[in-house]
Amino acid sequence: MSTPQTPSFDRRKITLPPLNDKLLSRSRLTAQLNQCLQSKLTIIAAPAGSGKTELVQQWRSQYPQTRLAWLNLDKNDEGTVDFSRYLRQSVSEACDNVPIYPPHSPQEDLAALEHYFQEAHPELIVCLDNSHVLSPSPIRDALLRCICDPYSKVRWLLLSQQQLDWDFTELQLKDQFQQLGSTDLNLTVSEITELANLRQYPIEDAQAIYDITQGWIAGVNLSLATHSTGVQNNSHPPQKTIDLFQHLAISDLPPEVFDLIYAAEICNPINSELADQINQTKNSWEAIDYLQRNCLFIQPLDQQENWFQIHPLFFIALQKTLSKAPETTREQRHLRAGQWLIEHQITEQGLQHLLLGKNGELFDQHLTDVTQDWLLNGNLNEINHWCAQVDSDRLFDNTQLLLQYLLSLTLSFRTSEASQTLKTYDETHPVRAPELDITRQLLTCFTLDTQHQPSEQRDRIRQELLLKKNKTLMENFVLGTVTNIASLYAYLNYDLEQAAAYANEGLRYHRLANSIHGESYSEFLNASSKFSSGKHSQETITHIEQFLKAKHIQRSQPCYVVMCVSIAPLCYELNQHDKSLHYCQAAAADMNLETHLEITILYQLTYAKLLYRSGQQDQSEQLLNSMLDHSSTAHSSRAVAMVSLERLRQAMIDKKPDRGIGFYQRLKLDEISPKQPEDISETEDFQSWGLICVGRLVYDFLQNNYHDAQTALDNLRHFLKEKDNQYINVILDVFQIAIFWRSGQKELALNELSVIIEQLNQQGFYCVLRDYLADLDEMLVALKDKLPKLITPSFKADLQLQATPSNTQSTAISEPDKARRLVTPLLEPLTKRELVLLTDIANGLSNQEISDKRFVAISTVKWHLKNIYAKLNAKHRAQAIARARELSIID
Questions:
Q1: Please, what CATH class does the domain formed by 11-185 belong to?
Q2: What is the C-alpha separation between 515 and 510, in angstroms, rounded?
Q3: Residue 301, number of CB atoms within 10 A of its CB
Q4: CB neighbourhood size of 95 (10 A)
Q5: 255-358 with 826-886: one CATH topology?
Q6: Whether 630 contacts 643, CB under 8 Å
């Protein structure tokens, strides 16, 4: 009788392959794996060529003392005897060649496995490569019992090319289950560069290789080897990369997967409902499920797994097949995608697909529908961008779309573009559309800054709109906007009661138009009108800041700019100079002196004061001179007067009459005499005349002509007696104190000063004393002896904080100190997680690297970065890092 032959034993199955010397070091990932291996079970599920084995090799090299039993499975391991023999031999060698004790039968072997691992070394880790080849069988059931056995200390590492459908619920509930996927294993851009240097491949653009391969290691290696001069065009990757990808991922795919890929080639990221809409099928979810189960280059983008990103190589590898589809079919798919996206409120992507679908009529129809909502919500940038994509003939034939586009341009302060578009329309359309009349009226209101009688013309336009019966939604919107403009200019002219009345009226019409943005603007103007008394200043600032946050007002919306313009002076008056600077800079980003000159002057004047206070007098003077040139060119007497007052005020504080007199003569202010106020006609711009009188008052004061200065002050009081503005009245009272003091009437000056201080103790804006009283320190010394209780500690503290640099200090302030003085603090602090991510980007980590390091999705990283940029007022990483270092948030 012949003796049965012993089956051959392939030691390669239980031997971990040696580590390649030129393998990229991934210490971050090996540390992550080592942490995972503290749990009972760790699974690494990723496509072929993702570096699963290489990761285990590197981990093993870093932790050589670990007892690791390795078994590389294949389809032939379904037999109980072979499987048990290889597994027991690998465990025996990992545990110092402990006895194996072979069973008498396969049935006894499976029954004994659980007990076998209970007695195995407690530090043993068993790694099964290609675990996905084990189909449901007695072997897999026995192995699952061993893995989940609570009495066994053995830890398990399963490598798989598919998501395993084994039942690990018990381990998951005990928090003894960890998993790494392709996203974790993929190379980052910096790692691709490092790998290229290691292999001595000269590449020019690691980002391009990453865009093609998404960091898939096999694809990266082939890209480096076959195209080492750099990938310049993402549509032409190395052919070997495509060939391998086709072999590993594309061969033998079910038909529904190809349908999904065709849909994703049109719209990626993809949603199963969207894919069904594009293809007119109902099998997209099955295709997504197949790709996920087989780890075939698909990545969920949200926790609900509604949206997925498909690997770019799918499209590149199938490029020839995709290009064979008729162009009309491709256009129809774009149209279907566009309609689905717009129906699901993904508007901008939907419009982009409608454009690619080359159906202008359908595109115009949907754009007309969404622009109305955008206009009412203040999303003007979107309107301006998409309407610019419409052919001018189609735009002019669509009166509703043209109307909304012109209104958007006007509200975006792009009045010249709106005027030119309207002019072109009039030239090509002899019969004007009556619907556009409201656009002409609004445009007129926005271009009245430098007109002689702006308020009367605005009121006339407003009355015309009020008389219309059965107003349309757009007519109510324009009426509310015109009324808000009237409120704004009443506010700028210190007619605060009228400003509040206009704001409430504008609110009513915007509510009729369902304009959320218009309502917000009206509410803001109403709040700003509370500045009629200084005691409301902090309340107003707090209200506006809460309002900006609660209403989600964006920088692209016009009312945000005007809010910043209005709040900057308020912050300055309350000694909140850093906040004031922040709002000045925010306004400067979206406005210039050529559009809405007098609104712009407000924040420019505040910025000039901030420069002056920080010791940068020369820079402040340069800014004022520039503002004066623009104001003179625009023939705006009000703007000229406002700039003049600030420049002359600085001259008075500096005690440099020659400087102030020269500035006064440049303005030729003597053309208007402040001594005959009754001769000024009712139609003349009152505010301009009044401010020029202030300039004349300061000029006479600097000339030591206190008699004429007193006359100018009395005339101003006569004109301002009906203007209930506490702030202006305090300034005039301060001028009166200065005249009394300089003319030798010091007792009268101190009496007036004591009254003012009592008033300011209740109302605030102490800075007017420091701004307009050059002799304030001397007065306070005299007043302290007379009324010691009047000078409170808080009063002294406020004045000390607002102290203007002396002439000797102004040239001695160092540049770093200047920079420090003008650094804007954060209005909303960074969260702990945002601080961590900010440190990561400062250390040069990419989004992918941060995702890997912090165990969060890339979409979460991007969301945090968006918040960080917004809080730091930054547009990109470098700016955010620089800003954070200025504020000492990071080192």
A1: alpha beta
A2: 5
A3: 16
A4: 15
A5: yes
A6: no
Each residue of 441-460: pLDDT tens digit? 887 777 654 444 456 667 78
Give the CA diameter of the chain: 140
Reported residue count of the chain is 891
Tokens 């917004």 label which residue?
Answer: 870
- The pair of three-digit structure tokens given for residue 410, joined into one six-digit string: 């006007």
d(CA 782, CA 796) in angstroms, rounded, equals 14
Give the DSSP per-residue string, 652-707: HHHT-HHHHHHHHHHHTGGGS-TT-GGGS-TTS-HHHHHHHHHHHHHHHHHTT-HH
* Angle, helix 558-573 to helix 516-528, in steps of 10 degrees: 20
In terms of DSSP H, where are the helices of 133-271? 138-148, 169-173, 182-185, 189-199, 206-213, 217-226, 239-245, 255-266
Lowest model confidence (mean pLDDT) among 14-28, 538-552, 586-600, 731-745: 586-600
Written as one letter, the residue type at 2 is S
| Radius of gyration of the CA atoms of the chain, in A | 38
- 121-138 pLDDT, tens digit each: 788 899 999 888 888 888
Question: Residue with structure tokens 């009349």?
Answer: 437
Task: Kindly state the tokens that stand for 631.
Answer: 């104001």
CATH topology of domain 826-886: Arc Repressor Mutant, subunit A (1.10.10)
Residue 179 belongs to what H/E stretch? strand 177-180
Return d(Cα 157, Cα 150) in angstroms, integer.
Answer: 16
Contact 861, 850 (CB under 8 A): yes
CA-nearest of 717, 719, 714, 712 to 674 is: 712
Q: How far apart are CA 160 and CA 147, in angstroms?
A: 16
Of the candidate CATH numbers 2.40.50, 3.40.50, 2.40.128, 1.10.10, the domain formed by 255-358 belongs to: 1.10.10
Domain boundaries, the chain: 11-185, 189-250, 255-358, 533-630, 631-646+656-807, 826-886
